[in-house]
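Below is a filled-in request sheet from our internal design queue. Each sheet records the structural input a requester submitted and the sequence that came back. We keep these sheets so that new team members can see what a complete request looks like end to end.

REQUESTER: design group, bay 2
PRIORITY: normal
MODE: inverse folding
CHAIN LENGTH: 118
BACKBONE (tokenized):
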């Protein structure tokens, strides 16, 4: 069975935009071959801890190999968020798609950030 090597994704990634109102830090870890995703959002005075969830890593080929991308799903009491990220050179580009589930009338929204390894 082909496998995906997590090595290149694993680490702490920090948003290159210090003024972002979205995700400020992404921590990707290898838990016995399974990807774990821990996100932090922009809050003041310190980042909001989104918690850690299971992620799914992807290789660039069906033959497996180094991980080049990931997805993860976050469920909060007020919204659901799909997160995906992919390596571009030495950077990690992370996109998140959020839908509010609290009947607040807020629109679904998309955000994107570029991250560098800390």
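RETURNED SEQUENCE:
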């Amino acid at each position: 069975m082909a496998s995906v090597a997590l090595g290149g994704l694993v680490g702490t990634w920090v948003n290159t935009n210090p003024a972002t109102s979205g995700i400020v830090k992404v921590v990707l870890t290898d838990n016995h071959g399974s990807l774990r995703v821990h996100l932090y959002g922009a809050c003041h005075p310190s980042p909001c801890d989104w918690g850690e969830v299971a992620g799914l890593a992807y290789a660039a080929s069906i033959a497996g190999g180094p991980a080049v991308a990931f997805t993860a799903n976050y469920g909060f009491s007020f919204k659901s968020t799909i997160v995906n990220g992919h390596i571009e050179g030495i950077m990690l580009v992370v996109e998140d798609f959020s839908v509010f589930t609290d009947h607040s009338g807020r629109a679904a929204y998309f955000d994107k950030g570029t991250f560098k390894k800390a």
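SHEET NOTES:
- The chain has a mean pLDDT of 97.
- The chain is about 0% helix and 65% strand.
FILED BY: M.R.
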